Amino acid sequence: MTACAIEGGSAGAAATADPEAEPELEEPGEPAGADGSGPLPEATAAGQADEEDGGAGEAEEAEASSTGADARPDADAPPLPGGFTLTADGAYAARLTAAPGPPGERAWYPERWTLDGPEPYAVPLPLDQPEEPDSEVAPLADGRVLIRRRVADRQMFSLLYPTGPGTGELLLGAVGCAEMTLLPPSPDGRCVYALAPGEDHASLWLVAGGAFGPEEVARIPGRCSGGVWLDRAGRMLALDRQERGGGPVKAVAVDLGRRGEVTPLLQIAPGSDDRLLLADPDSGLLLLRSDAPGHDRLGWGVLGSCLPVRFPECLRLADVAVTPFAVQPGQMLMPESCAVALRIDGAPGSWVGVWRPAGRQLHQFAAPLGWVPGAGYWSRDGVLRLPYANGATPCGVALLDAPEDVEPSSVTGRTGGGEGGGEPSAADAAPVVCKPVPLGQAPLHGAARPD
């Protein structure tokens, strides 16, 4: 497998898989589901030792088994939103929600959450008529909320904001295309981009933050998806692209300061699908998914580095899907020390994992009741904030301190490696899902708006 990194420019990544890395022992345990009872059922679980293994392994994402507790939302909770989007600094969030009612008769409306104050609170932003459930919303740093509506074969864009007891609306314009997807808000807090597919190219549109309404800023050959920001200025955007005519999916960097100039970002193996999931501009940590090891695996690398991509064994769990959703910022030049939050989906529902590349352990926590799976953000000092809403708390944030990692020997109860002084093989014990334990044993507390 060959390496391909961008040097001397603003984009680049470690892009080789190391097939010879020696695996380490995993701690066996009994799978168990997260408890859905109680107002805030968060909990920790014992960490697992990790393998820095680039070799073939089992598929990370498998069909969830039918065992485990049934994690149902509270009967009095509001309907689950279709999405929950945060600003890059975590100050605001927006979602499309609905008042309780029979299916098919719910009145959908945007809602803005303010998360940077002493107590979180939500502001509804309804207009004269309800929104369609396929509309998308994105918050801006000034507290306004962008909404994308599909009207026939056009996409309409407006900015919503609270005006006393009502909702103000600023029309931005329309784009004549049948399909369009909002990208994560730009790190600058002012701009929002959207991606529109075409027959042989994808169009990138600036739909909020421009001078004259929506404007096309780049055309990228091929089929594109994803969308990850690589810098704090909102200039470098990573997309997952498939060339015209098919072939593997490769992450590329799009330079918006050079009219959408495209350069390779991930090239782990010639025929592998290499997708970028998350990036931290401060440390350069990249979280990716690739089938270069033989199956789809989560891996990590460093932007601009020539070191190989690593595929940790502790992130390869049986019968669940593991997806990173937040990286701890502020760890300048220390990518291995960044705490990473992961969404874990299985038969019991969704819960939270916390992992560091240097720690080589996956800590598992039950999610707060009403958590929007995959929503959350880190503070610079290592506190994970998980937004949630349920019947008792219409707008809350659960705070989770990043746990300390322990040596693998302390987790497994062993004092040494395998035979001959080497690391134990992953074949000695298969990766498993750890059982969350009660809230009182977890470093977690909640911050919610009082009724």
Topology:
Elements: E1 84-86, E2 92-98, E3 108-114, E4 121-124, E5 136-139, E6 145-151, E7 154-163, E8 166-175, E9 181-182, E10 192-197, E11 201-208, E12 215-221, E13 223-229, E14 236-242, E15 249-255, E16 261-264, E17 274-279, E18 285-290, E19 297-302, E20 321-327, E21 340-346, E22 349-355, E23 362-365, E24 377-378, E25 383-388, E26 396-401, H1 408-412, E27 444-448
Antiparallel strand pairs: 1-2, 2-3, 3-4, 5-6, 6-7, 7-8, 9-10, 10-11, 11-12, 13-14, 14-15, 15-16, 17-18, 18-19, 20-21, 21-22, 22-23, 24-25, 25-26, 26-27
Characterize the structure shown.
The chain has 1 helix and 27 strands. The protein has 451 residues and is an all-beta fold. The model is unreliable at 1-81 and 409-451 (pLDDT under 50).
